[in-house]
Amino acid sequence: MSVYDRSRLLRWRMGWLPGRPIACRCGHPHASRAHLLSCLRVAIRLNIALNTRPNPLDYVLNQLPRKLPVRHSPSLLSRWSAWWPVVCAILFEIEQICQPDEEFSPAASDTSGSLLLDKLKPATTVHLSTLLSIAE
């Protein structure tokens, strides 16, 4: 997880996003958490039920593994390959709405989520013959 993703995730979970009353880009006068979740169609984008509790975004974040699995889990990788880039994009959009005057660097704008997904992928095995051919 990049430092930008981690920062957005923590600020969302701590209730700091949105940080202050601000108008939404859709024209709604107050971009509250509830408004942002419906305006950005979070449940639809994450392909989960609208009435998910506590809310669709927090439901998905509650599913994050607490530690990296010891063994490769295809179902875990499949689920997070679908969810994580969408979560990163949603949190980035929320940050853009909350900080409309901010210019984001390319690194801060990257919502691929590849750092977390790479950790969930199986470790590649290197055969001894490959190592020997490289050493020659």
From TrEMBL:
Q: What is this protein called?
A: Uncharacterized protein
- Taxonomically, the superkingdom here is Eukaryota
Lineage of the species this protein comes from: Eukaryota, Fungi, Fungi incertae sedis, Mucoromycota, Mucoromycotina
